[in-house]
Write a structure and sequence with these properties.
Distance between the termini: 35 Å
Strand order of the largest sheet: 1-2-3
Largest sheet: 3 strands, mixed
Radius of gyration: 17 Å
Shape: elongated
Strand content: 25-35%
Structural class: alpha+beta
Order of helices and strands: HEEHEEHHE
Number of helices: 4
C-alpha cells in the first residue's frame, strides 16, 4: 500500500507537512499531518485522487491546515505575472484582480510585481 501511494508521501515531504505520520492497518494506508495552507492540503488530496481514484477506500487521510485565513502564500518568481499566479491557484487568469485586492498594501499596480514579494492568495 505504501508503494502505491509513495508519490503522496513524497509530496508530503516536499511540502514539509508537520506532525505527519503513516501507518498501514487492515489493508488501508492511514496518513495524517498538518499542511501550512488549504492550497497545500488540496495538492495532497489531488495526488491521493490521482493515485487512488475519486473515492479511494484503501487510504484514509486526515490532513489539517495550520493557517486557513488565506488559501496560500506565494513568493513571486522572476517572470511571473498576477494572471499567471491566479491561473496556478484558481485555474482562471482573471482572478488576478482578487489577488491584487488582497495585496493592496504591497501592490500599487497589478502589472508591476517583483521577484521575492510575498503575496497572499485569498480564499475565494
Amino acid at each position: 500500500m505504501r508503494a502505491k501511494y509513495q508519490s503522496v508521501l513524497d509530496l508530503g515531504e516536499q511540502l514539509s507537512i508537520k506532525n505527519g505520520d503513516v501507518k498501514e492497518e487492515d489493508g488501508q494506508l492511514k496518513v495524517w499531518g498538518t499542511a501550512k495552507t488549504p492550497y497545500e492540503k488540496d495538492l495532497l488530496w489531488d495526488e491521493i485522487k490521482k493515485v487512488g481514484g475519486e473515492n479511494p477506500t484503501d487510504i484514509m487521510a486526515d490532513i489539517k491546515v495550520e493557517d486557513d485565513s488565506v488559501y496560500a502564500r506565494h513568493t513571486v518568481a522572476k517572470g511571473e505575472t498576477l494572471g499567471g499566479i491566479a491561473k496556478k491557484y484558481y485555474g482562471k487568469v482573471m482572478k488576478y484582480k482578487d489577488i491584487f485586492e488582497a495585496n493592496s498594501d504591497v501592490l500599487k499596480n497589478p502589472d508591476v510585481i517583483h521577484p521575492g514579494q510575498e503575496l497572499v492568495i485569498p480564499n475565494l
